[in-house]
Automatic annotation (TrEMBL):
Enzyme class: hydrolase
GO cellular component labels: cytoplasm
Reactions catalysed: GTP + H2O = 7,8-dihydroneopterin 3'-triphosphate + formate + H(+)
One GO process term, biological-process aspect: tetrahydrobiopterin biosynthetic process
Pfam families to which the protein is assigned, alphabetical: GTP_cyclohydroI
Superkingdom assignment: Bacteria
Molecular-function GO term, any one: GTP cyclohydrolase I activity
Protein name: GTP cyclohydrolase I
Amino acid sequence: MADKEDNAIPAEHAPASVRIRQRIERARKRFHANDNIADFLEPGDLDALLAEVEEGMRTVLQSLVIDIDNDHNTRDTARRVAKMYLTEVFAGRYVAPPAVTEFPNAESLNELMIVGPITVRSACSHHFCPIMGRLWIGLMPNEHSNLIGLSKYARLAEWIMSRPQIQEEAIAQIAEILMSKVSPDGLAVVMEADHFCMHWRGVKDEAVMINSAMRGSFLKDHTLRSEFLALLNLRKRD
Ligand SMILES: Nc1nc2c(ncn2[C@@H]2O[C@H](COP(=O)(O)OP(=O)(O)OP(=O)(O)O)[C@@H](O)[C@H]2O)c(=O)[nH]1
């Protein structure tokens, strides 16, 4: 019987996704839908993935019995979808985190600061349907904290959200990266989002999901937490 190794595709001929997956597995890292895998990409990999996803999407469209050879509207859809996934809506899986300059808290500021609402866009891991929402970030710095530019909150959130997500994990990832960049005394994150897997299909309900992640002094200090929540302008319901 032929040795299993004999049938293995030589690494250089394996599809890009297989080569990348092997690197990740060798490093014993995770590659769930909402994980960033930029560290495992080599030059040229993204273009190779684009061609591979396009080919896969072409097969999906053919399986949906769409005449992609003669339908002028869907002729380039496979390429468009591949590009949209890899370079736009799921780019946060494939690119390194945005550069964030951290400034020392030279004046030892220790007053509540709130940023928001930041618009967030994602897609649910379950159906790949859009998630559109708003995010508020509350920070209580201390003398050891870093201060980061205001725009960086939106850039970091976008990096996390442009992956297939579920809202509960997305907010935890946002809290984790902010804790590591800012080292605040306390951090509060609130997200309110529409899930189109509920609006457009399935149960067809307009309900929104609101969730929060509290860290440090926001967990211990009820007054601080109440002050933060009172200052948010959450959607007014009819
Ligand atoms: N907890 C959580 N659920 C989500 C999120 N986004 C989408 N969902 C839900 O994921 C679930 C997937 O459910 P399944 O039962 O596996 O799939 P389904 O049969 O298509 O479900 P229906 O949507 O009820 O038709 C649905 O209830 C979605 O509403 C999210 O961010 N968090």
